[in-house]
Design brief:
The protein has about 210 residues and is of the alpha+beta class. It has one domain: Jelly Rolls, CATH 2.60.120. It is about 15% helix and about 30% strand. It is built from two helices and 13 strands; from the N terminus they run E-E-H-E-E-E-H-E-E-E-E-E-E-E-E. The strands form three sheets. The protein has a seven-stranded antiparallel β-sheet with strand order 1-2-11-8-13-6-3, with helices on one face. A four-stranded antiparallel β-sheet has the order 7-12-9-10, with no helix packed on it. Strands 4-5 form a two-stranded antiparallel sheet. Strand 4 and strand 5 form a beta hairpin. The N and C termini lie far apart (about 35 Å). The chain binds N-(carboxycarbonyl)-S-(3-nitrobenzyl)-L-cysteine (MD5) and fe (iii) ion.
């Protein structure tokens, strides 16, 4: 379903086995050299979402190779199988080959029952390549907005466990957020019993 130009929602894209594999890998990444943490905003407030990164570490609002706000370790690379999954996601969402799509960063967000993400744009990347978003666990309301204001007009979409969303073209720099997660709505086969995981694959356009 094309929600807006370049914004394609593919419900039920990941199989339960793929979801369980991603959950198991996310557990390893979350407890690896750079532990999952709730990032602190420049305002001093901590985000309610917890994040661990691969390839490049995102800290509000920049990317680095080491996680100065999470122990100082060097971030783990994006595994080749995850790059390949991203290529398949872009190619299936847009119905054309995506051989040149090579995401060099993955952000893994964990939402507990009360976590939310306010409306924002993702502008730290120096590339307009598409962002791949994979949802696992509890259902959420995803708010897809416009490119000029963080308020209306926007479209609310429910994202369920296994859903794929690709944001490219005109939609890449739209405001978006997650106003609500629905506790207890997870697919029992997905490998997560509580909360919501979101994995985004990005092309940063950055070099060391
Ligand atoms: C999430 N994560 O569900 C979302 C999914 C984040 C974030 O927003 O920054 O970690 S990614 C949604 C996204 C990415 C890039 C562009 C657009 C949406 N968009 O144009 O709507 O945890
Ligand atoms: Fe975002």
């Amino acid at each position: 379903t094309e929600v807006a130009p370049g914004a394609v929602h593919v419900p039920d894209w990941l199989t339960p086995a793929e979801q369980r594999h991603l959950v198991a890998e996310c557990r390893r990444w979350a407890t690896g050299p750079v532990p999952m943490r709730a990032a602190q905003l420049p305002t001093g407030h901590r985000m309610s979402v917890q994040t661990v990164c691969l390839g490049w570490h995102w800290k509000p609002y920049s990317y680095s190779r080491t996680a100065e706000d999470a122990g100082g370790g060097r971030v783990a690379p994006v595994p080749e199988w995850l790059v390949a999954l991203g290529r398949r996601a872009v190619s299936e969402a847009y119905g054309q080959p995506a051989d040149g799509y090579t995401p060099d960063a993955a952000l893994i967000n964990f939402y507990d029952d009360t976590a939310k993400m306010g409306m924002h744009q993702d502008k730290e990347e120096r590339s307009d390549a598409a962002v791949v978003s994979l949802s696992i666990g509890d259902t959420c309301t995803f708010r897809f907005g416009n490119t000029t204001t963080r308020t209306k007009p926007y479209t609310d979409v429910e994202l369920l466990s296994g859903d794929l969303f690709v944001f490219g073209g005109e939609s890449r720099f739209a405001y978006h957020g997650v106003p609500k997660v629905f506790p207890g709505t997870s697919d029992p086969d997905c490998g997560l019993t509580t909360g919501r995981l979101n994995i985004t694959l990005r092309v940063t356009g950055l070099e060391d």
